[in-house]
Amino acid sequence: MPDYGQLDELGHSCQANQDTCETLIRQIRTALSEFEDDVGLLWRLARALFHLSNHVEQERDTEGQKQLVQEALEQCERGLEVDDGVWEVHQWYAIAIGSLTKYEGTQRKIEMGYKYKEHIDKAISLSPEEKTLHHLRGRFCYEVAGVSWLEKKAAAALFGSPPESSYEEALESLMKAEERSSEDWKTNALYIAKCHLKLSDVPTAVEWLHKAHNMPTSTPEDFTAQTEVEELLTQNDPTFDNN
């Protein structure tokens, strides 16, 4: 039986440390040589590969990042073949395929978007209290709410019905994530603010942007979010001074 506890200790810190990611990946690959097709190992490998891809992205190695995310997706596909009742596999499948959309054209993005939603919805049905799943669903709804009329027509032509959502629906999911989180979550706060901006509630958006700005910044995701938070504060709060 693999030592999931020890792997998860490394997993919690690899978001902020590239060397830890690489160590964790080596350990999981070694464990998989003994416990082949262990679903718990497969989704943990996908998670570690994805976190490593974020570190690689910070180094502006686009091809390296894409390869890591593609392998993360492949590990999730292996996991789903073994057992499609594990919510973490569906979560990391969705995260990986969502990350890969930036390399694709409109038609493939739409197709991958449907797969993303399918796996997030399945994961939520298996683990309805998991905060990350509601965050991911909120981000999906946010993106779909901003899809142009032309893109919706293209989706309808390809798949029979266009993707539909709203900023209100996105906000509802993001608030569910916030309510279930016991820690500061910069990216979630940022997306809550972005929903309020889209809904023309600038004062509430600015409040959430300041909350996000004051949260610790430690992971690549945090640094990316912080940059956007500062840009939005500069645009929407005349009193904001980042010096």
UniProtKB/TrEMBL annotation:
Interacts with microtubules. This is Regulator of microtubule dynamics protein 1. GO terms for molecular function: microtubule binding. The keyword Cytoplasm applies. GO terms for cellular component: mitochondrion; mitotic spindle pole; spindle microtubule. Pfam families: RMD1-3 (PF21033). Gene3D superfamilies: Tetratricopeptide repeat domain (1.25.40.10). SUPFAM superfamilies: TPR-like. It comes from the Eukaryota. Its main location: cytoplasm. It is found in: Cytoplasm, Cytoskeleton. It comes from Geodia barretti. Keywords: Cytoplasm, Cytoskeleton, Repeat, TPR repeat.
